[in-house]
TrEMBL record:
Keywords: Cytoplasm, Methyltransferase, S-adenosyl-L-methionine, Transferase. Residues 1-32 are annotated as: Disordered. SUPFAM superfamilies: S-adenosyl-L-methionine-dependent methyltransferases. GO terms for biological process: methylation. Its EC number is 2.1.1.77. GO terms for molecular function: methyltransferase activity. It comes from Streptomyces werraensis. This is Protein-L-isoaspartate O-methyltransferase. Pfam families: PCMT. It is found in: Cytoplasm. Belongs to the methyltransferase superfamily. L-isoaspartyl/D-aspartyl protein methyltransferase family.
Amino acid sequence: MTHLNTGGTEVGATAPALSEPRTAASAPYASEPRVVAARAEMVARLEEAGDLHPGPVRDALLALPRETLMPHAYVRRSAPDEPPRWELLDWSRSDHREELLVLLHSGDGVSIQHEGEPILGRVPDVRSGGAMTAMSSSMGMTANLLQRLDLRRGQRVLDIGTGAGVTAAVACFICGHGGVVTLDIDRHVSEAARARLMALGYQPAVVTGDGLAGWPGPTPYDRIFVSFAVPRIPPALVAQLAPGGRALMTLGTSSPSWPGLAVITRTPTGVVEAGLVAVEFGHRGGAGFDRLFLSAAFRNRITSSEGGRTRRSRLEPPTDTDRGMWLALDHLRPGLVRDFSAEDLTIGAPRCGSWVRARRVGYRRWEVTTIGPRDMWAEIHDVAARWRAAGSPHTYRLEIGDDGVQRVASRCGALSWALTDASHTGTGATGELDPLLEKGDSHAC
């Protein structure tokens, strides 16, 4: 979800714990065989992909009527390179229900708000232009993170970035909602989530405010979950973490291509320990996070090699699974965006117009085409050499100093960088920025 600096208001209250969602009058379709089957099939796919394992998170997802939390959702009716046109599907309409059933249980992210609009009481219609401003993240990433969070009965949980309320519902199912707080910057999102969680029989504290400041409710919290990317760890959230507690959040730059997962714990004696794990998928940045994109025109120039310089190289580029290297590249050589839809290794720097494309043409032979002031092929191999010299780390130490300084470092300290408040934008002349993240440009959700 998004985040801005605003005052906070509470729109919900706590109530006695309730472990099972109510599904009779409030969710009349939840027990229909096709709805139950859709949930079971989604869970089975998550298990097959390795994103979900037997345990309380699996039990929660099997029991959760997603159509109650997301009775309205948007589908894009325009092609990726066309101006966006969105249609709002409504579960109460029989002609929408089948498509919405598939969408909600596909495992993909689900868009629920357009341009900050009120969510309750909307009329299904087509929206043109603009952007989606609230969503439910992809279920594979969500399930994996919720399992890493290790939710347990009776814990106090702060869920930041309420979205559709899926994380809050799972926390209520597992922990009991008496200690669950879910916070969002948008009051429309908070109001809708509160109403829909109540329809399931859950009454966590649903509040509106700045997620970076946390919430002074039943602190300290045993678990803190942030569902938008941050450029550095918010000190307020560290301060609100209980001894024995754990916090998870995506840490990234302006590039959506190579996220890191920050795992912060506080020992029983009160010592804060943290690590940064290179991951394939991460949450998108919220409002104010300067995100970079590769426009359709930019990608077309790369495809046509317009103005590019081509040479042969025997240097082998790092593999996609060398995520620790790509994470380091993102921070040490900022401003790069990977086109994951391209057949060949393709990376652009939209701020200055530089790009590189590397194509295998034989054993240890690569055809490398570049353009622009940045030699990204050299940048990649420079960071890769430093990464290998540091032991090819996949996980880094995350140092959070009392003086506000935050640094990421390999265990031996040979590879490190500082975190700043501003997301990186790279250097060079002004480049092209897409108003929307286009499918295939990113591994962010």
